[in-house]
User: What shape does this take?
Amino acid sequence: MKSKTLIRSASNKFSGFKGSGNVFVGFDGFIDNILRPVLERKDSKNFTPITDIVTFANRIRSGSGKSINIEIVKERSSLGGNGPIMADSLIELDNRISIAGSFGKDRILPIFKPFTRKCKKAVSIGGPGITDAFEFNDGKVMFNHPQSVLDISWETIIDKIGLDTLKDMIEKNSYFAFVNWTMIPGMNEILSNLTTLIKEAGGERKTVYIDLTDPRKRSRSDLKECTERLLGMNEYADVILGLNESEAQQVAGVAGAGTEYHDIKELAENIRLHLPLFAIVIHSIKQASVCAKQGSFILSGPYTPEPKLSTGAGDIFNAGFFAGFIAGLTLEECLVTGTMNSGYYVRNAKPADKLALLDFMRSFI
Assistant: This one.
C-alpha cells in the first residue's frame, strides 16, 4: 500500500471514529526545563544557539584539562514525564484518562493542574522529578533529577491510591499505559502486581502499552527480568512494547535477538521472534515500524531537520499510535497516526487535537 493511500485510509477511519478510549496511565511525573545552549551571544536579547549534539560535545570536550563556561537559555518549563505527556496527547485526541503520577508530594502542583483538570481521575503519588532537556536539531540531551520518582513502589502506589480504588481503575479501563520503567527501580514488582490485578479483573481482554525509557543505566539482568514480566502480563492482556531504536537494540540484546538488522522493521521482527508480545513498535527520527501476528510494517514519517521541540516526541508518537489502535485502525495505519502526531508536535511545540492532527495528516495526501 502506497503511503498516500495509507494516510488517506488512516485519516478517514480516524475521523469516522466518534468514541473514546478509557485509558489508565502511570506512574511518573516530571517538570521539564527546555534549554538551549548558546553558541554566540549577539546582544542582551539575541543569540545563536548550538544546533547539533556533536558541536555541543566538542564545546564540552574543549574544556578538558582546563575549564569552560557554556551559557544556557531556558525557553520554558512545562509538565513532563512519559506518562503525563502521553496522557495529555491522548486527551487531545478525545480519550478519557485516569492517571496516577508524581504531581506533588502533598498536593498537585500548579504546573500540572491544567492537565490534571482534563483527566477523568488524577491521583498524585509523590513529588515530581526534574528534567533539564537540551534541545538540538538532531536530537536532545536530557539531564534528569529523579528525586522522589525513584521512590515509587507498589507500596507507595497502594498507600496513595488504595487497593480497592486501584482494582476499580483496572476493571473500568480497557486500555493502559505503564511507562518510564527505567526511572522507577521498583517497576518490575509493580508490573507483576498489576498483572495479578488484570488477571483477577476478568472480563474483556485489556491492552497495555509499555514504554521503557532508555534502560541503558539499568542492569541487563533487570531488563531481562522486565521482559519476562511483560511476557507474563501478555498472558492476560495484549502487551504493546514501544521502543525507540536505541531501546530496541538493548531489548534485542537481552532477548537473544542479536544486534544485526537491515532496518527497524527487521529489528522489530527479530525482537518479537524472541519476545512474543502482542506487538513490538519501534520509532526512529525518520521511520516507525511494528511487528505483530498480523504482520510487520515500516513507514517513513514526516521528518523535519529543524524541530521546534523534540523532548516528549517519543511519548507523543506513542499516544498517536495508541489513539489509532483505540479507534480501530490497523497496526500499519497506527504507524500513520503515531508518526503524524509526533511530526505535528515537533513542528508546533505542542500536542495536536484531533482536528489539527487530521488536517496535518491530510496535508501529506
Notes: Residues 331-348 form the longest helix (18 residues).
